[in-house]
Task: inverse folding
């Protein structure tokens, strides 16, 4: 398992070294803390995405569901005057409901995850735009943006959201590697028929995974809103592919059943370092999109080749 | 071995019947895979099940461990209805299914305990639901050593094993935990001579431990080497039950293919 994240870790080091040679500002504490803060949203989406990909699925709706959750919680708070915790819970619930819908379509109608989530991605996007009239929601209650606040640790600023992300990674790691439910997620991704025949309730596992992924996207909306301080209907557009890239870069196989969630954290940092470093180098955001596209294809190629090697 | 107690089967033969099925029916859409199949497994025997491709052998096994469309199944004379493979396993019936039912990227120990993982004692296990990895590795190692399967590292992933060793893991998983009946679907298919013999040896050891074994196989020499009786499946029904000591392999094949009609089977061939 330690070997599994070695590759992604080396990629992270290499990326850091490269950008350190390109910009003096890259290795400053201030900048690294910024990278970490920016990585938080993608990082939490990537947890949900990891669960789905471990079952040999894919969730293309992740970023859009995250955006919808953010709009729901900010509109609910501003329009209906709901207190922040209730509005936040509403946003997370809607995201979870989307995840559950994905899961139901995959398990009961037996549609391919790719198509299901392509559909729900567009549905979530459309609802976000319609409900917000494509307007940014401002004047959020203080509580709602608290996770974006920072505190000082050894001179560097750390956001509360970063702590939440690390806690969620720790929790997910524990469940995936130390409990039967977690091992069943791997078994379903490895060989669904074998899992079914040994009596693992494969549909329940899948349903749980997709719904839980939705919950993670909901937490990500919380952090997105907290970091930007507004409900942004155009959030989630880069995060969608970034999260998938992060998971694959982190060594989780798109074929299912292989990978560790900590890898996705490293993958998230790789993606974050690339975006940050390219920005410092003055590369325009279009090129960043280009680089992310190339990164994801490289990562999938590595996955494919290593899988062939293992056979 | 438990002797039937509750609701004894009406015509109890000299040897107790462990697993019995009557009139099993299983359909897949328009295909009738089982068309009134009967089945009887006695204590302490290796019962081979032979039949052409598509005769319904694998379906029979799945129907025994998972609810059939119709028909009744008795375990030790008691009417049972397993809603899922896990219920069959809880009753002590272990199956090794035809299509290598292992999770390749998981370790040998994890595969052995798939679906019946051991949890830690106390708070960690009860409240945090934490698995007891070490215990699973130890028990897996002990069971595999017991069965003399030549796999020593329980923390190796199954995909790093050879095809024969993988098959052994799948067979051992069934054999290691069975308390009542072991059902093996084509466990020697795709194995070399040495590995095939290894699995046969394993089956013998399981029977000698007092567990009856159902062995589905296309390999006639294997069947004749190890089986006490041969159940011939044909077109979703039981064509005959043969005694391998009283007939030749070609006789058995003739029954299997229908060249010898059921009514023409000599009485001394039957078991
Ligand atoms: N999951 C399924 N869906 C549809 N049809 C099936 C399914 N499983 C089995 N069948 C059909 O049921 C019939 C019996 O199949 P079964 O697998 O029991 O045969 P078998 O005797 O085990 O054959 P083989 O020797 O090839 O393993 C076949 O006609 C097959 O096409
Ligand atoms: Mg078969």
Result:
């Amino acid at each position: 398992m330690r070997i599994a994240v070695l590759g992604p870790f080396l990629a992270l080091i290499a990326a850091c070294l490269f950008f350190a040679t390109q910009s003096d500002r890259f290795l400053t504490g201030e900048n690294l803390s910024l990278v970490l803060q920016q990585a938080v949203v993608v990082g939490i989406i990537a947890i949900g995405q990891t669960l789905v990909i471990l079952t040999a699925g894919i969730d293309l709706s992740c970023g859009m569901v995250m955006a919808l959750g953010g709009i729901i919680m900010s509109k609910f708070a501003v329009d209906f005057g709901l207190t922040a915790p209730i509005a936040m819970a509403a946003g997370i619930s809607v995201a979870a409901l989307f995840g559950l819908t994905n899961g139901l379509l995959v398990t009961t109608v037996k549609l391919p995850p790719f198509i299901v989530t392509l559909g729900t991605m567009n549905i979530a996007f459309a609802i976000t735009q319609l409900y917000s009239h494509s307007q940014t929601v401002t004047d959020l209650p203080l509580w709602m943006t608290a996770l974006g606040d920072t505190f000082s640790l050894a001179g560097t600023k750390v956001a509360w959201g970063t702590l939440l992300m690390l806690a969620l990674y720790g929790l997910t790691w524990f469940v995936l590697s130390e409990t039967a439910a977690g091992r069943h997620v791997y078994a379903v991704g490895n060989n669904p028929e074998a899992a079914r025949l040994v009596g693992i309730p494969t549909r329940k596992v899948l349903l749980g995974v997709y719904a839980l992924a939705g919950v993670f996207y909901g937490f990500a909306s919380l952090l997105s809103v907290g970091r930007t301080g507004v409900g942004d209907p155009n959030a989630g557009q880069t995060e969608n592919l970034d999260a998938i890239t992060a998971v694959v870069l982190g060594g989780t196989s798109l074929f299912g059943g292989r990978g560790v969630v900590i890898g996705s954290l490293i993958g998230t940092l790789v993606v974050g370092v690339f975006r940050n470093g390219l920005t410092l180098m003055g590369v325009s955001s279009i090129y960043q999109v280009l680089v992310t596209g190339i990164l994801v294809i490289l990562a999938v190629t590595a996955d494919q080749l290593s899988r062939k090697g293992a056979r | 071995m438990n002797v039937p107690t509750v609701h004894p089967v009406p015509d109890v033969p000299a040897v107790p019947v462990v697993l019995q099925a009557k009139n099993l029916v299983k359909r897949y859409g328009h295909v009738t895979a089982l068309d009134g199949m009967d089945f009887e497994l006695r204590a302490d025997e290796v019962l081979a099940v032979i039949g052409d491709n598509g005769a319904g052998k694998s379906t029979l096994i799945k129907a025994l461990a998972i609810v059939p469309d119709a028909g009744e199944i008795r375990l030790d004379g008691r009417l049972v209805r397993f809603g899922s493979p896990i219920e069959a396993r809880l009753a002590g019936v272990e199956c090794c299914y035809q299509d290598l039912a292992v999770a390749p990227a998981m370790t040998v120990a994890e595969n052995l305990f798939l679906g019946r993982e051991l949890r830690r004692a106390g708070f960690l296990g009860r409240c945090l639901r934490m698995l007891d990895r070490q215990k699973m590795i130890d028990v897996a190692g002990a069971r595999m050593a017991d069965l003399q399967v030549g796999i020593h590292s329980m923390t190796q992933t199954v995909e790093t094993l050879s095809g024969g060793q993988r098959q052994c893991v799948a067979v051992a998983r069934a054999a290691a935990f069975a308390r009542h009946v072991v059902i093996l679907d084509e466990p020697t298919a795709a194995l070399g001579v040495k590995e095939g013999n290894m699995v046969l040896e394993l089956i013998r050891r399981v029977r000698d431990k007092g567990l009856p074994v159902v062995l589905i196989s296309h390999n006639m020499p294997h069947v004749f080497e190890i089986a006490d009786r041969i159940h011939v499946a044909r077109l979703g029904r039981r064509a005959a039950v043969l005694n391998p000591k009283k007939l030749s392999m070609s006789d058995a094949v003739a029954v299997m293919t229908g060249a010898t009609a059921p009514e023409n089977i000599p009485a001394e061939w039957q078991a």
User: Anything to note?
Assistant: Chain B touches chain A at residues 84-87, 89, 95, 97, 99-106, 110, 114-117, 119, 128-131, 159-160 (CB under 8 Å).
